């Protein structure tokens, strides 16, 4: 039921970054569910992680190892290794240890990632048994297979790729992501891997990723549930024949940042388009806020309202539910008579009440579309924020009532 | 699909408080949808109202008129008269004006209440045409009919009643409520009317209602949507032959407060039991918080998580979703290894991880019940809060996708 999400686009290989996929049979026999990634020597690696206090064991290990010049990433789907306590840390590390032995590197240079059911013990033996096969298949052109390998309730793999020229050299940025439920900002149930062959110092790479995530992965929500496992990493292999980026400025820096932002945005929006049970892709734009936070508060109140979401599912321009959500977003001294609301270009609420020009037919026509823009004007200041979300359908309930069974 | 909610209990008449019901045909011809209530001269009236910034026109009028010694309450269902701007105020007042003329009192002594669809103009003519009939039928024993008259998506009317003796005199507290969706604290899409024949000064009555609402109506959530119209009023007619309560102390004060709290709690829980699509009644108890607010933050994070709600619907003890919700509730420095979670008496999470003694069968047995207690121990302090909520079912989506059509 993904909205406007088709086959994977061409995913250009990134020189110095290889991916290998294997089947450990964690939830289903034969399903490719383990992905190993290798970064060329000298790569820099940045990461952003969930802010959930119950962050999973692999997230804890990743955070510890970001300064150890990571060389390998190992991901399993089917089990999140979250809320698993001390045993979780041991099992996550056992997988890293096995991979480290296979490839001959210190365990500190292996980053683990897990996604799937929370609270069940990680099946270490199954995963470890699959690692040699994954390592044997490491190759730069395996992005599409890896995109499938990290899926959980996703219905389609998600990837994005772009290239640009700098001083006659082609620079590539390619990424994959997964996530369809337990999605809300501060990283979703979401794994994202983006690699470039540019060379970037670690601190600048971290800043670029932080900014890119704030404009993309941290602006999407499906059900408002912040996952325990969200992780997004950005790798710069330095294999392209251009000078390394050591300062946050210059033509190459600007072009790379733009390319990474673009890939991150496409990956994040793909997650929403494939949201659990999604039948609509909804953009919520809040303008005229006094500051960023109040724009986000309004946008998320609307995005998380089950009543708005079910109305969108029903293609019902029940705009009263939108204004009700704006009203409880917690803005101090909101002057409701200054609020305007648009569905695409149709003004449905003007000065806090139903717009005189509005007809139900106009609203119904917009709501019937697969992609809908809800634009809210607060007229309190000059700030603006945009987030992306989905509707709430029968299928969402079915998926999440039946998951695990 | 109401959970554990049967026929109305006996609703004892309250001397000095009459109710009259009529049919205005607002949404359905023949449906009784207009209720007039009359408070005996000398009654005191207290009210608590929605905190939604887009609060409806009738709420604005009610708030203005609380100090005008209200004598009449007029309620319509089928139309919320919310987000209707200046016209909304005019139409709400036009209904009050008509009633004032009929009964011969100043318009300031009439409080209007509306519930139903947001954003559509109030059908004043229909309502006004029904008022004479409602007034003609005013009687003290009409509580049950009035309970039906205020319903929207409710499947059952909701009422509660209790009596106690003081110095040989029987004191009565009786109430009705409505609400099934757009329900979350700070008053839900909820109307509540409670009356007693005790005599209580207005300021003390207001405090009693405020406290009672905070323990009942402000501790329930169905979908997290705070409505534009929530209103709860408490009327003291003073017709019982006991001395008036002028101080917040004494045996009568204590007994009355207890009775009002009990009625408010039953009315609030009835709303949850009849929550849209509800198949389960869930109590969430958070203990060991450093302060009340963090207990509430955790309780509401769990109560609002669509993933927890769908798991409850599926009778699936997918406790990982509960800990994930605790983890994103925003508590600073949450030590996850101190967190314990129980389903009824079954310990599912001990010290932040799956309890050693826990078996899936134990969890499944509790989840299969209609009524479930989720108890969370934070071990950060001595505070405790309890809220009540429902699951998220196919039926919830169906009701809210089809409402209006």
Describe this structure in words.
2 copies of one chain form a homodimer. Chain A has 11 helices and 15 strands. Chain A folds into 2 domains: 17-273, L-amino peptidase D-ALA esterase/amidase, CATH 3.60.70.12; 281-402, Ubiquitin-like (UB roll) (Roll). The longest helix of chain A has 23 residues, at 251-273. Chain A has helices spanning 57-65, 85-103, 124-136, 143-149, 202-215, 251-273, 292-304, 306-313, 320-327, 360-367, 394-402; strands spanning 17-22, 34-39, 44-49, 72-79, 110-117, 158-166, 169-178, 191-196, 231-236, 281-289, 340-343, 346-350, 353-354, 371-377, 383-390. Chain A has a 6-stranded mixed beta sheet. The first copy, chain A, has a 5-stranded mixed beta sheet with strand order 3-9-8-7-6, with helices on both faces. The radius of gyration of chain A is 22 Å and the shape is globular. Chain A is 32% helix and 25% strand. Mean pLDDT of chain A is 90; it is low at 184-188. In chain A, α1 crosses α2 (85-103), α2 packs parallel to α3 (124-136) and α5 (202-215) packs across α6 (251-273). Chains A and B meet through α2, α8, α9, β13 and α11 of A and α2, α8, α9, β13 and α11 of B. Chains A, B: The active site is at 189 (nucleophile). Chains A, B: It holds the Pfam family ArgJ. Chains A, B: InterPro entries: Arg_biosynth_ArgJ, ArgJ-like_dom_sf, ArgJ_beta_C. Chains A, B: The record marks 188-189 as: Cleavage.
